[in-house]
Amino acid sequence: MVEILERKNKEIACLKHNMKILEEHIVFLNRKLFGKKKETIIDDGNYLPMDLEPPALEKEEPVQEELKKVVKKKRKKFSRFNFPDDAPREEEVFDLSEEEKEGLKYIGSDIVEKLAYRPGNYFIKVIITKKYAKLDKPELGIFIPEKPQAAIPGSRIDESMLATILVDKYCDHLPLYRLEQKYARDGLYISRKTLSALSLKAGSLIEPLAELLLKEIMASQVIFTDDSTVSLQQKGGCKTSRLWVYAGGASGDPPLIYYQFTKDRKEIHSLRKFENYKGIFHSDIYSVYEKIAKYDDITWQPCWAHARRKFFEALTNHSLKGTVLQLMDDLFMHERKVWEVESSENTRSQKNYLKLKIRKEECLPIVDNIFNSIKESVKKGEHRPKEKLTLAIAYLLKREDYFKNFLKNPDIRIDNNVSERNIRPLAIGRKNWLFVGSEKGGQTLASVMSLVQTCKNLNINPREYLEDVLKKINNTPKNLLTSLLPQNFKKIQ
């Protein structure tokens, strides 16, 4: 009888434990949906981080094609869009020099009209290329002046307008149907199909610049990385793909940003990027990063902000949670002093000395206190498996040495907020355009956003930069393309 009661008591205790875990999940999910996002510590525990996922797309009904015999009509002159009727025209003339024209007879001009844009209004740029010939020697052909190659040869879109489309789409995150409506209100009718084709061509054109930007980031030896989801449209519905961010540059808050689009989250994507890398990288916890951390000449710093979130999300009144959160808040407060040193006028060696001094005297005792408090609580056996607080404890203890790396290196930050900030524009964008239409569209998104976000971090007007780059990229040798990167923009304008 006693054995039966003991067995029943164990079963009851197990069921209560499982019920507690399920209740914790229910409360957490309810707060995830309806609670506040800010991760502040408040007494009643009414808190909730996390963002909502974008709404699911409704599946479109397939359109049945009419199987009727179509009578071929006379083909009209092809034109993707019409210019606004009231748009002014400005001429840009290409002519030979007076010395080159000597002995030649003017025989006419090639005239091309392109839709252009400057902030506030559209206008038609009339490009006139004057032509000459020697009437007594027609075999010499026609003499014309040299002119720069257009970004998209043969297009009726000027680089200024193309840059405007890219900024509207990839900086302000307007979906194509809104762009179509926006331009239509100004008397400019460009179809979504044409806007998409222009974006893809421009993305292919500037993709080499994005790759050069990645090389600069990897050469900085201090990088931040993260990833987020993007819906990729495919037959039968949308598939979850990824957009990875890599941030770097010679700064405590590095401005150079590179995005990489991939169809999945396989480890090989990150392993390839870090294949020849040597230096420091910051990230959240992901199995591939723990593998990379074991490479020679690589120092991994897991994000303390993510670790804090694990404790914050543990819906419990256990005293350890409050203790750890308070200690972590103190740690972040002292870290602010460390990065205030970065903006001082001291030399690099003086800055490094002061940073390590603050960390040794003020941060190290706090870190030791955090781990000691956790270890003492674990020894008491107060934490049951699968509870969120237990998972938060394991999150820190399993990687204790990695979490302490910032105490030994002045160039390391304790958080991965740099990449978090630069992944945020994607979260804003996907709530507007919802998905990318193809893998090529995802690559274009990554290339253009890399340059646009870097411009924003450097306080450069993205539209002005893209217009300048699009005018020059087809006229710049490959070995000089680095001069077109955003960080060199002011030097070349």
Distance between the termini: 90 Å
What's the tally of helices?
16
The count of DSSP E runs of length 2 or more, i.e. the number of strands, is 11
- Largest sheet, if any? 5 strands, mixed
Shape summary: elongated
The share of residues in helices is 40-55%
Instruction: Give the rounded overall mean pLDDT.
Output: 85
Can you tell me about this structure?
It is a single chain. The chain is an alpha/beta fold and 493 residues long. Among the domains are: 83-147, no CATH class; 209-429, no CATH class. The protein has 16 helices and eleven strands. Helix 3 (159-170) crosses helix 15 (462-472) and helix 5 (192-219) crosses helix 14 (439-457). The longest helix is centred in the first third of the chain and has 33 residues, at 2-34. The N and C termini lie far apart (90 Å).
